[in-house]
Amino acid sequence: MRILYSFLTQIATFNLWVAQHFNNKLKTFVRGRKDVYTIIERDISAKDKTIWFHCASLGEFEQAVPIIKEIKKQLKTHKIIISFFSPSGYEVKKNSDIADSIVYLPLDTISNAKKFIKKVHPSLAIFVKYEFWPNYLFELKKNQIPTLLVSGLFRANQPFFKPYGSFMRRALLSFNHFFVQDQDSQNLLKTINITNTTISGDTRFDRVSHQIEQDNTLDFMEAFNDNSICIVCGSTWPEDEIFLIDAINDDTLDVKYVVAPHKMDANKLDIFRRKINKPTVKYSEVFSTSGALDEEKLIKAKVIIIDTIGLLTKVYSYADIAYVGGAAGDTGLHNILEPATFGVPIITGSNFEKFPEAKILQQLAGLYAVESGQEFTQILSKLVHDKSFRSKTGMIAGHYINSNTGATRKIMEYIENLHRDGII
Predict the structure, then answer these.
(1) Cβ atoms within 10 A of the Cβ of 187, count?
(2) Digit-coded pLDDT (tens) for 218-258
(3) CA gap 261, 254 in Å, rounded
(4) Beta-carbon count within 10 A of 380 CB
(5) Which among 39, 9, 13, 35 has a CA at the least distance from the CA of 26?
């Protein structure tokens, strides 16, 4: 089965090479992997002790960050290497100073796994949430490199739990320990005789809980907000924007809207903007050539479109109500924990079956899901008009964050023991 899997991976590699000529995203995916070993050789020497984190994309990176920060405090002799599978993670974080080397993960062939692990020579490998690449896992086990899964989340429809999933189940045996998010995940692993597990929760709670302690001041938001109720719509997709346009255009309230689209496509942002009949400004337009802030333009605007990356987390600190995108379609719900940590009531689309944090927060009445523009307008109106309801909903969201921190500490205790025993 491993030979067949590797053969199919080789075919996929060739197909991707062909397809890149017709798709810019695939071109980034393929060409970005050409420099992997050059980057590693530049950043890592054969004498360095290293710890390797692998993340699928940006969301998994955010789950890794609290652990990385603690490792850097406790194991200062080790260099940190982060690999990404997706361009949407790598291209955003490739210049981050949180790690000593950041690269794409070469595709999961036997030769790639051998070469990558030899170059990286990690003392410890940490995979985040969903990432299971058999050839890499087998190679790690062969080299007796301790391997952890953190913030793991398992579902019954995954191949591990199917009659045909023996190959993938064997790959799971390469992990020394599983730190999973919930009881359901632990129970599923027990059904395939995997018991080296700990229910640690999700490290993202630790990540976002520290955000409230940071300086989240943004001058442009101070001017734009102007003591109005502020509705922040984060990581939106076209499916979400259908809800937002009607609500904004029909709005007669003294509220202001911040819209931070998930993708920074200038043409699509302009199309969205033209559909809004209220005074609208883009973030890139509120500064003069000298860098001075045009406060008058911000005060007059009803809507500001954030056409840059890296500001959303701080923008959420100004929100009275948050709409988090991704769940109106099938792209996947974005991070609801970022607004929740500021005690902000949350609205989303209804498609979040794979996101346990959203399901739990909905059950607690800190999150409301909508399936139409009409439903969005109704719950938004209630949150705007009923201050007590808004405060209570936000308080539930904030408490949910505070009561679920601690995953990083549990994982670090395990890692510290490995270090104390001289294993890493």
Answers:
(1) 13
(2) 999 999 998 899 999 999 999 999 989 988 998 777 799 99
(3) 23
(4) 23
(5) 13
Chain mean position to CA 235: 11
pLDDT digits (tens, 9 = 90+) for 74-109: 999 999 999 999 988 898 899 999 999 999 999 999
Return d(Cα 56, Cα 88) in angstroms, integer: 9
Amino acid identity of residue 218, one-letter, is: L
Express each pLDDT in 378-388 by its tens digit: 999 999 999 99
Contact in structure between 323 and 236 (CB atoms under 8 Å):
yes
Count CB-CB contacts under 10 A for residue 420.
9
- Per-residue H/E/C for 6-66: HHHHHHHHHHHHHHHHHCHHHHHHHHHHHHHHHHHHHHCCCCCEEEEEEECCHHHHHHHHH
CA 252 and chain centroid, separation:
35
Angle at 322 between CA 321 and CA 326, to 5 degrees: 155
DSSP 261-328: ESS--HHHHHHHHHT--S-EEEGGGSB-TT--B-HHHHHH-SEEE--SSS-HHHHGGG-SEEEE-STT
| Sign of torsion over alpha carbons 81, 85, 87, 89 | negative
Its pTM stands at 0.86
Place of tokens 């899997």: 5
Match 């810019």 to its residue by tokens. 24
Q: Is the pLDDT of residue 26 over 70?
A: no
DSSP annotation string for 163-224: TT-HHHHHHHTT-SEEEESSHHHHHHHHHTT---EEE---HHHHHHHTGGGS----HHHHHH
Residues forming a β-bridge with 259: 233, 305
Q: How far is 197 from 179, CA to CA, in rounded Å?
A: 6
| Contact between 326 and 333 (Cβ < 8 Å) | yes
Residue of 258, 261, 177, 193 whose CA lies nearest to 225:
258
The dihedral formed by the CA atoms of 262, 266, 267 and 272, expressed in degrees to the nearest 10: 50
- The CA-CA-CA angle for residues 413, 415, 418, to 5°, reads 110
